[in-house]
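=== Discrete structure encoding ===
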Amino acid sequence: GTGSVDFNPVVDRIRFVHSGGTNLRLNAFNGALAATDTPVTPGRAIALAYDRSTSPAPTATSLFAIDDLADTMNLIGGPNGAPSPNTGAVTAIGALGVDTAATVGFDIAPQGDAIATLSVGGSVGLYTVDLGTGAATLVGPVGAGSTAVVDIALPRPPVGPLWALSDSDQVVSFNAASPGTATSVAITGMQPGEHMVGFDVRPATGELIGIGMTGTDGRVYRIDPATGAATQIGTAPFTVTATAPTWSVDFNPTVDRIRLISSSGDNYRVNPLNGALAATDTDVAPAKPTAAAYDRSVATATATTLFAIDDVAESLNTIGGVDGTPSPNLGATVVRGPLGVTTDSPEIGFDISPIGEGLATLSVAASTGLYTIDLASGNAELVGAVGMGTTDLIDLAVPGTMAAGASQFTPVAPARLLDTRESGTKPAGGSTTQLQVTGVAGVPANATAVVLNTTGTEATADGFVTVYPAGEAQPTVSNHNLTTGQTRANLVTVKVGAGGKVSFFTQSGAHLIADVLGYYAPPTATSGRFTALSPTRLADTRTSGAKLGVGGTVTVPVLGQQGVPATGVSAVLVNVAGTEAAAPGFVTVYASGTARPATSNLNLEMTGSTASNLAIVPVGADGSVTVFSQSGTHIIVDVAGWFGDATSKGGYSGLFVPVSPSRVLDTRSGLGAPTGALPINGSLDLTLAGVAGIPAFGATAAVINLTAVEAVHDGFVTVYPSGTPLPVISSLNVDRAGQTTPNLVGATLGAGGKVTILHQAGGHLVADVAGWFTA
């Protein structure tokens, strides 16, 4: 048999369970047996892991276990340890969905991500495991997949960059591992006479938020840590009852409010959305905090504890109790333990990383240093001097782990930005047209990418159109493929280039039209996060036989449908197809209950034709979207994901990272897949994780422009997550044999970071990446 070990973070004891059922507790301090518990039954536990492995110790934890014989995920004991794992009782969760051998490794990260190594089909792979359902999803092989792995342990990631606030209103940046190398930038943009008294990273958005005060007036600012530029949130200051020597600023992650506490004991809550005072709470007593910080600073936190440093008593305290019971609003303090050092200044910075590491800047023996703080005992340990140790620091903030360039989506009212027909001058073959996209139609100057519905029309000859960031070399990609005289629309998500512009290269000459539908920008709110879905059909008028007439509309419910939640949704990502067109015309998709915009989403170029296009559509007040057909056609709508609204918790998941367009698949040359056209109903697996700027881990979906080239006959192409059943949807429609046609696809990644592409029509395939969404 085999055994598995894991630490119970609540009591700091090792749990040992043998595959035969033996159930023990061990003391990590002396290696002695702490207790012999009831054997585990029924089933067997081949690998186990506790959740919430954080510091400070959580108040509850659940013990998960994998049963290799039944291929299931179970609990030993129950949720939150009730009943206790000491009883040996087993609570079923669900099937892994794979058949694993007995060599299994399993662990759960402090933030709750479950990882396992499973031996499936003779290959050892790394899997993510859904603790709610038990389902295991392959990430990829471990090495060559031939080495048996019997356990794994997830190390706590080290804290990297830190931002400190100096008493002279500067952002001081340094790395936790080497605080002696520090740089600083002055904070600008505050009101005359104001002093920045504290700042913290807002878990919901990743922004650095500070409070500036003059007298009893305070203002909330959004601070760019790279430039020091401060932008006021709200229009008016809030007012406190009295001035104080020092203040502490920290975010409560569970309610997205700022805790503002003075060294005199004043206790306030501030709203980061409008800069207003949210509440005046009971004064903090008996201890007087100099610096305070909440733990579990992630947007998804459901409980948090407020810790505080008292420089007079040289101790670590909690304000309120563990997990906020009693609430910090009541002001009561509980001593946690002594710091073990003597500070010589009330100017202290303090923060707690998302995984529970306490960090503080303290002035000891006239030198400002970075210290780790044991949140269980209060003990402070010196890491090193910050810079030369001569700068007085009054606050500290740990940045979140947001991917560089990550941006939230904001829809705008559809607006036409480009139409070369109006000037009468058609862009010539081989020419490039630049389009200003920032500072117009509601797109801000800091937009990282824009979503455009683009159309090529009246093509002079067969050719293609490429949309790419201005100022960059033209990439070997395409967004449109046009034949002589043709009109085709395609959604484009494109990174914003130099001067806030994007470039359109026209290979053979064609008129160009571009309508802006939205943009991506660094997050400043909790909305605009994307949740990818396995693509699913929402509507198909062919099943009812009711083709839309000329000027006809159909309302498609989306909220509460096919994985889209009933609330909290601002927009949906859908692929819309028109087929069996009664005449040439266009189709427009928009929020139900609103005026139809003077734009189109797809063009049907001839009677009987079929065309499709991806669309990001705001959801109407009734939870639906409306599809309008100008000339009459059948309508098909497939959903690929949804964007959250302002009620969302925010955080770092579901943000878009634009990349410079890059080709990742071309079956004509063997890029990304074997050389050669796919047969009718042929399929291929395309690896997207780890290529073209998409990380090997941490991406949930990618935005790709997919092109069917030289189709064998009319039909469709379906893109879906590898390792999942083939859905009844289409990602791209081919109208006739020999056609070359593109479509933008929101591709949800599956096992191994791959997507599977079924080419029902047969022919070559080409795919270009425009960006990816964070997991």
Notes: The CA atoms of residues 440 and 570 lie 22 Å apart.
